[in-house]
Amino acid sequence: MSSRVRALMVCSVLVVALLAAAAFAPLPFTLAYPGSTANVLGADKGKQVITISGVPTRETSGQMRMTAIVATGPKVSAHFTDVVKGWFASDQAVMPRDSVYPVGDNEQQVAEHNMRDMRQSQSTATQAALAYLGDRAKGAKVDMRLEKIGGPSAGLMFALGVVDKVAGDGRGKDLTGGRTIAGTGAITPDGKVGVVGGVALKIQAAGRDGASVFLVPKGECADAEAGRPDGVRLIPVTTLAGAVDALKALNAGGKVPSC
Asked: Is the dihedral of CA 59, 60, 61, 66 positive or negative?
């Protein structure tokens, strides 16, 4: 055997070893999947998600469903093969671990962080909804309860739930039009809708749970379209007022924004 052949064999063995090591080496990524949804107009664990006192409220039909993703735990490492599979799969996504678990891998700290984000989301959603409603909500007290789902991305749907319970479309009808409306989006106290993560997975969760319409932050139309199931209509939004107007137009058969 010539020295050249021996050198090639040694190099081949080293390359195979390196590839094998890379395939099993932990990488700073997390795998995410379509998570749960919850109807903010209804009950969760036997308790109303949104309770409003101090002003008259309406009986509502249809559903307003907030959406979520579920991810592998903060201590679970993705490997090269997982990442490659996730890139090509439609029902999962590869996300930087720091974007999903910004406070590290302590599970208790992660849970507390997510619940703080959810409580802040509920607070800002309440402010946005009451500001939009104006005098119709003067004196209103809003309480929100939703267990075991954290993060800031339900703000838009919480705010829409408050608006629907207090005012509907302003003409005695529901914003939902009897449909199951789902969506995602962070919200500011002045009603601006911000982008969130995992939109392609959230719209799959929405379709799985019966939604026919999905409200998405306008800047994430492409991601939503990538995961959109058949039969789910996308409506881009930038503000709470714009989302309300879009739902009114949908119910009236008018012109509705599209991605």
From this structure: negative
